[in-house]
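Quick start: what a row looks like.
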Amino acid sequence: MIKRLLIANRGEIAIRIIRACRELRIESVAVYSDADERAPHALAADRALPIGPAPAIQSYLSMPTIVEAARQSQADAVHPGYGFLSENATFAQACVDAGLTFVGPPPDVIARMGSKIEARRLMQQAGVPVVPGETPDDQSDEGIKHAIDRVGLPVLVKASAGGGGKGMRHVRDAREIVEAIQAARREATAAFGDGTLYVERLVERPHHVEVQVFGDHHGHVVHLFERECSVQRRHQKVIEESPSPVLTSGLRARMTEAAVTAARAVTYRNAGTIEFLIDVRSGGGDHAAFYFLEMNTRLQVEHPVTEQVTGLDLVRAQLLVASGEPLPWTQDTIDQRGHAIEARVYAEDPASGFLPQAGLLLLYREPHWPGIRVDSGVAEGGEVSIYYDPLMAKVIAIAETRELATARLIAALRDFRIAGVRTNVPFVARVLATQAFRDGSIDTAYLDREGEAIAATIDDQSAIDNQSAIHNQSAIRNPQSAMSTFDPWDPSARTVRREVSHAGSPPRRATRASSGDTLVAPMPATVLKIHVKGGDAVKKGDTVLVLEAMKMELPIRAPADATIGAVCCREGELVPADATLVEFA
């Protein structure tokens, strides 16, 4: 059995793993960057070690540093969580080479399934249906363009090493092809160190349903049913639930069988997820068409909904299986009971194009209700950093029915008190209340089509008089006095956020010029790519440069036809909020 576990991650997933360690009497070792010295995960572990500067590439993504921390702490195992190095085969192999137990699948399985191209090939061999597409040997822009021509528009250009929507671009118009290829390759190279691309036919308005699988070292492979993940924005999931409202019993049986087949085909071990797209245009019912999308060779952010409907602890099972023990359950003992829905709470501003936020949490009070679970990695007085993903917490509701779970989650979100940074909490509650969510018809592009309109219904209620603004600023100076009255649905709450937000929070129309003369940084960010130079003519809407912050690319566009006077930043430079990026002539 594992004795001492180093957790190579941060935030809520690190805390979740620490809690599982306590139940199994495994000593936990946290790691933290300079930005996370007082973070909740660093304080919760039995021991915590510093691993370097705030930028992830110098800390949480530094393989030698993580392995050395494991050696210094005399850990005998490493859990990668999700994100960061969790699906990095080289890191998994480095752990094995150092004599450490890697809590996850073998390195060769991560490598094979981490390549979306290789994964497609393996699934086709195993008889699992895949989305029609093409993987060109010629990886030049022209080679990818020819592949798009052969597959036919509309298509997705996707990164072979990708995930979470990074390195992925929709192409519907032939005029967008070259820019989409270059943007996908650039983003994939920056995020994964691999710019290899492939092309898939775009399945219009599909449902995204994934199946949780688990394998052990003794030849056992089981599924733990499905999760519906269609509520997503720019391929980032926002709301997940189980069971899926669109699956019949026959379709569920076909998909779970395909998922187990896929896991067996690669001799999978530990927790993993097989993701599928359902083509609702192919007809409903038991015989609807579905396609393999990808396999995530790690624990998923949304694993709590599976835990809630099955009553099983996935992290505990991960640690047992990694220790060489057989799975603690068999397929015939795993059941779905009730309905669970998870909402991700992000530090982002829906009213400003969902730009990620950074700043101090002046007020943070989680809802504590029966049937509500909150997994979080932040605390009041802490900081939401510009260096990491803006996910703050996950709120999960469990109830006897989907209708009751939805109502319970909305009520819990209304009771979530947060001030200091803007969040998506009111927005998510609005989505849960839409007819499209209630009838289960939301497809993967729904929020990209309707998200701004939904966000506008929140922003329209933000106008209040000066007296209310003064009252709320006073309340925030004394958060304890405001605790019983602060309501994120109260229109005055947006003024609270607006007035007390940290300097990192972006202003309105954040990707536009703050005046007619300049373009400014909407938040602290790294200059990723500059597309112009002094003297260039640009048209309204042209991408002038691209910033990167909190794991997202932020294109900065020209507000009108103009001529560039001067570029006031350099590629790779970290710029503060409101820094002048470009001056117009």
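That is the whole record. The mean pLDDT is 89. The longest helix spans residues 249-265.
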